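During the no-cost extension, the postdoctoral fellow (Dr. R.K.) reprocessed legacy sequence entries with the updated structure-token encoder. One reprocessed record is reproduced below for audit purposes.
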Amino acid sequence: MNIKFIKSIYPNRNQNFSKKDFGSVLLIGGSKKYIGAILISALAAIRSGCGLVYVAAPSQVCKQISGLVPEVIFIELPVKANNQVDYLKSKTILFEAINLADSFAIGPGMNQSDESIRMLEEFLKIMHDNKIHSPIVIDADGINNLSNIDNWEKKYQNPKILTPHVGEMSKISKINKKKIQTDKKRFAIEYAKKWNINIVLKGPRTVIAGPNKLLQVSSFINSAMAKGGTGDMLTGLISGLIASDKLHMLSKNNFFNKSCLGVYIQGFAANIAKEELGETAVKSSDIIERLGLFHKKYFQ
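Re-encoded structure tokens follow.
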């Protein structure tokens, strides 16, 4: 994957557009244990160029992070006494929230529990029944919880982008982690076709595969990205990029192209952070702060 390809898939940005024209994204996740993950996703989505960012998270998570990102609109999900999301009460809230957004992401900071599995399943069902053409990026514990839902790829037909690291890919595919590591391209292509989705198999030289045998491999190898939060960042970035180009959302190969664009922009920003700070000390928020430099250098 090189800059020539990236330039060929980069969307035009109309100077006369309003925030509604640049689309909205709804991010769903967060838990008492993983408060920062959904925050990182939101910060990246804000930098993607989309018009509005909504975050649906457990009420205590919203209260703790809402003051850190004034640009985000928070939707509080009720929790039970055990601090797990009350998926039955959340169902109604999510049903109303889906009408606010053009693209969706679920999983960052979610945690693995019976309640989270049920909430994910309810969300997928709501989307399938009401916004079947809207894309869903699924990451982190969204993927881990998805592995516990039988026939998810057949029951819920929304366009999907899964963004697993090798461990998450192993869990959902039931293939040994070491086996996947030996040939990431083959397994990404195979399961993108099998599940009819786009797969972003993360790691050094991240592999992006589409359901129609499309394939790109990232040229970036940078241990500065081997830090907590970079996966959450990519989730927010890809879902935000999709929303920002809402007029072309259903164009051919769009979700594959936006996945490639997100991977490239993140790698570009991480390289700048590495040059400025040294790869050892780079943190996820350093990369987020530099996401805009890609757009500035090549298109603005």
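The first strand starts at residue 24 and ends at 28. The mean pLDDT is 96. The remaining legacy entries will be reprocessed before the final report is submitted.
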